[in-house]
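Hi all, long-time lurker, first post. I run a small reading group and we've been trying to get comfortable going from sequence to structure in the token notation. Rather than ask abstract questions, I figured I'd post a concrete chain and ask someone more experienced to write out its structure so we can walk through it together at our next meeting. Sequence below, copied exactly:
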Amino acid sequence: MGQITVEKNVGGIVYAEKNLQDRTQAKELLKNTQEFAKIPMFLGTTEEGGQKFSISRNSQMSLGEIEPMGQVSDADSAYAIGEKIGEALKELGLNMNFAPVADVMAEDKFNMIGDRSFGYDKDEVSRKVEWIIKGLKKGGVAVTLKHFPGAGSTEGDTKMDYPIVSRSLSEIKSVDLVPFKAGIDGGADFVMIGHIRVPEIDADKPATFSEK
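-- Answer (accepted) --
Happy to help. Here is the structure in token form:
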């Protein structure tokens, strides 16, 4: 591969499972990357626990079994799993996690969020989101809420299309936005916009491209 010329400083890099082979390689890669940077960078990944996500499903990482975030039963266990994930990522050299999911599921919908969500009740989702965030930050990583403004009432897969949010604007405000507010109040560092269409807010553009 030829030399890459970068005109502006790089702010961050996102790592997937294929980038991180084992603990030794991952720690060296991340350490070297940070040392090469003129300004300390965000080194991020998506880690929600369970076998679907970047670190926990890689048997060579030897992190032990990490419970999926969406399956936590209460605030205490949410905090504990958040702290465990945060510590595991920080120990490798990662400092940013694209989690947790703050979407409130709709009873009559099936979408790609599934059991990654904390459930159907906005208050229960809000509590678990808040405590997962506290745990992740105690563990030492920056936190990202997703998928704003809420993908729980969509159908389909956002990797294939822009699923449509079926809730009204009043429902979005009273249901979907509640966990995001709780997460922001709880110390979330970032909010990830969902690849979704929200006709009640912008009929012309998906959320990712909408100024509204």
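A couple of things your group might point at:
The mean pLDDT is 89.
The beta strands are 12-14, 42-45, 96-97, 142-148, 190-193.
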